[in-house]
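Backbone geometry:

***
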Amino acid sequence: MKHGMIILNRSISSSKKKIKILQLSENGHELTKDIVREGSFFGDLINKNTKINEYGKVISDDLVYLSLTPQRFEELSHEIPRIAINFSHEITRKLKNREARYSSLVSDSVKTRLVDFFTDWANVEGQQESSQVMLRNYLTHNIANLISTCRQTVTSILNTLKSQGNIQYSRSWIVIPDLNRLKLTLGGNSLI
């Protein structure tokens, strides 16, 4: 990713426009840090000489974005103050999300984090049909990174949820027959 701020174009009417933000570890492994959706800012406003080990990958078709240098972003913020206000709102939202993720990591079981992840994902992108929610499955290999655990643990919990009838999944779709019932699975003691 080039140095500078990138803004997803707010004129896109579909919420299907997404970029996966990846971080490259010292040993060369990609770690999914975030999924950026329409209307969000991502990138950095730091010095060009600073090494950046993160980048974005487009995971949807027909993405439109605007790439700005830090200097141009600052100029636009002065010319159009609403940009600075939107940016501060986005930063606040991201900080609150990071705080919630950290708190969840420290105090919640992996099962709780996974169910919370599915709940949030369903609320943002789910296709609701009565009590059933369908999610296009483009995150199969990234869920573990996004909830800070290993893929084997996610697979184990998914298989348990599937055998209980709380979730169905394939390469293309994740179906949650009843989101409220899925949330209720957290009522018992979880070993993971």
The chain has two domains: 4-106, 109-187.
